[in-house]
Amino acid sequence: MNCLKAEEQFSAYIEDELDYRAVRTFEAHLNACESCRREFTLFHESLDLLHQLPQIEPSTDFDTALKARLVDTQVESIPLWGRVLQPLHGQIHLVLSGVAVMLMMVAGFYFFQKASINPESVEIVATPRASREALLVEERRIEEQRPQFPLAVPSQEPQSLVSFPESSVFDLQPVRRNQQPQLSAFNLQPVRRSQQPQFQVFDLQPVRRSQQPQRLEQNYILQTINYTEAPTGGGL
Amino acid sequence: MPDLDDELMKQCQQGDMEAFDLIVRRNQIPLVNFIARFLSDPDAAEDLAQETFVRMFKAIKRYRSGTAKFSTWMYHIASNLCRNELRNRGRRGRFFVDNVITESSSGSESTEEDLIATAPAHVSLQPGNQLEQKEREHAVQSAISELPDRYRLPLVLRDLQELSYEEISNTLTLQLGTTKSRINRARLMLKDKLRSFVEST
Ligand SMILES: [Zn+2]
């Protein structure tokens, strides 16, 4: 392994994405290469600095300002083609191809009738216009049958935004990064990788995100679950 | 794990607009932080975060549950708004690193106890610590702001917003491999930009 290759694997090593062999090769290189060792330490330290950036608080009038903007905002309806294509998805193809087959049958029948009556005046009735019209009719029919989105959105404003409760059950307190119980930015812990006890310089144990005690998301869920009565299927 | 924001969006689609309030309240801090750190501009961040919510509000009917994670959708909209913003600004006044330094780290209201309560374990709690914190934040934000957009964006999503590689590649519509290598590249650049700061401390 050369230094460039080692450098390419810094993140993968930290995030535990290397397989066993790759880990061994990587660590062997770092043990042997002082320059990469130094760079890896610096890499780790700068990442820690990044993770320690304090949280920026939105200004207190964020909600008010947003509310003002939403008052003039209307929920966009789905354009016709989107409405036809989106909710029906694959079904539309079935419907349309069904329609097409029927049209062909009708056209064929018409053709044969005409042909049998007067072979001279055979028109090949490809009926592009007729079928287009039929399709439009069909689309309209689908459109009418399609259950309307129940969303009867008040076109003016979402009422509730007008009144954010000052404090309530779901008064979500943000988890502040720097209040998290010592995520130990440098996580100076003994290296647990059993296969390389000699690798002392790198006791900078990768910060495993999954081991962090909480993430914003999870915390919010814990705090809001009562309010929404969201299905708790495994979230908690 | 059920995605609560996704559930809330479904409630919005059924006309329950209180659910949208909750979406706003749950996501405004991550969104403002994402934009502020990416643009190094907290004032623009508020504006663009609000614009993101407005876009999401408009698109309530078009939101399709289950096709992607809600957060992916939100960051996708926000990223596009940010990139537009950068394009519009062009070369003039792109970065406002000084503005982005948080109030809390300027420490006007924090007591020593607050600091003890909030400081990471390794941070020494000596006089001048607040100043150090501010300097550190400034150094890191400056370093971030010097990275090219296409590296800075996935870096912020990964290391500040804590999205998974997969979520980031969906957000930015990049291949997974590209996402990973850009993030590593971005971290390597960050390391080089922070070298003198780290070595001086
Ligand atoms: Zn090397």
Q: What brief labels describe this structure?
A:
A: 236 residues; mainly alpha; flat; disordered C terminus; B: 201 residues; Rna Polymerase Sigma Factor, Chain: A; 11 helices; binds zinc ion
CATH class of the domain at 1-92 in chain B: Mainly Alpha
State the distance separating the first and last CA atoms of chain A: 44 Å
Please summarize the sheet with the most strands of chain A. Answer: none
Largest sheet of chain B: none
Quaternary structure annotation: heterodimer
Class from helix and strand fractions of chain A: mainly alpha
Could you spell the SSE succession of chain B in H and E letters?
Answer: HHHHHHHHHHH
Structural shape of chain A: flat
- Unreliable stretches covering 5 or more consecutive residues of chain A: 117-130, 143-236
End-to-end separation of chain B: 42 Å
Blueprint of the fold:
The complex is a heterodimer of chains A (236) and B (201).
Chain A: H1 3-8, H2 10-14, H3 20-32, H4 34-51, H5 62-71, H6 80-88, H7 90-117, H8 128-145, H9 159-162, H10 216-228
Helix pairs in contact in A: 3-4, 7-8
Chain B: H1 4-13, H2 18-39, H3 42-58, H4 70-89, H5 97-100, H6 103-106, H7 112-118, H8 129-145, H9 149-160, H10 165-172, H11 176-200
What does this entry look like structurally?
The complex is a heterodimer of chains A (236) and B (201). Chain A has a domain at 3-51. Chain A is 53% helix and 0% strand. Chain A has helices at residues 3-8, 10-14, 20-32, 34-51, 62-71, 80-88, 90-117, 128-145, 159-162, 216-228. The radius of gyration of chain A is 33 Å and the shape is flat. Residues 117-130 and 143-236 of chain A have low confidence and may be disordered. By secondary structure, chain B is mostly helical. Chain B has a domain at 1-92: Rna Polymerase Sigma Factor, Chain: A. Chain B has helices at 4-13, 18-39, 42-58, 70-89, 97-100, 103-106, 112-118, 129-145, 149-160, 165-172, 176-200. The longest helix of chain B is centred in the C-terminal third of the chain and has 25 residues, at 176-200. Chain B is globular, with a radius of gyration of 18 Å. The N and C termini of chain B lie far apart (42 Å). The chains are: A mainly alpha (236), B mainly alpha (201). At the A-B interface, helix 2, helix 4, helix 5, helix 9 and helix 10 of A face helix 1, helix 2, helix 3, helix 6 and helix 8 of B. The complex binds zinc ion. Zinc ion binds at residues 3, 6, 29, 33, 35-36 of chain A.
